[in-house]
Automatic annotation (TrEMBL):
GO terms for biological process: DNA damage response; methylation. Its EC number is 2.1.1.-, 3.1.3.-. This is Sugar phosphate phosphatase. It comes from Bubo bubo. It comes from the Eukaryota.
Length: 134
């Protein structure tokens, strides 16, 4: 299945500092993550009012998860397999395996060395996982 979508997203890397893809990964996505984290901070009292201490703990876990994600993105860390229990995790991990196979042993797919559409969607999927934690 992953091979059938490969031509849609391409295998261009993001090392072209003037490209839209590079700008998106370097600037826009970290800004989006920062806004999500800030929004969670601002709603801390609401989490407490609705869910008590469990709500506050869930908010802290989500912020920690998203802060780690932002660091991974900004420092061009390898894209990691999804480890959550959401039903589509296997499909995402299958596509990551496909990207690994394309690299022909030239390293792990990373944020700036992977197709931009994939890593942008992957970021939103990880945000979803952070917010869906129990």
């Amino acid at each position: 299945r992953a091979s059938s979508v490969g031509f849609l997203v391409g295998t261009r890397h993001l090392n072209k500092s003037i490209s839209f893809a590079y700008f998106t990964i370097k600037d826009r996505l970290p800004q989006i993550l920062t806004r999500v984290i800030d929004t969670l901070h601002r709603h801390k009292n609401e989490f407490f009012e609705e869910h008590g201490e469990k709500g506050v703990e869930a908010e802290k876990r989500a912020i920690s998860f998203l802060s780690k994600l932002r660091n991974e993105l900004q420092t061009d860390k390898p894209v990691t397999p999804l480890e959550d229990e959401l039903p589509d995790a296997g499909l995402w991990n299958q596509y990551l395996d496909y990207q690994r196979n394309l690299s022909n042993g030239n390293g792990e797919p990373s944020w700036f060395q992977s197709p931009w559409l994939y890593v942008e969607c992957y970021m939103y999927r990880r945000i979803h996982a952070a917010l869906a934690q129990k």
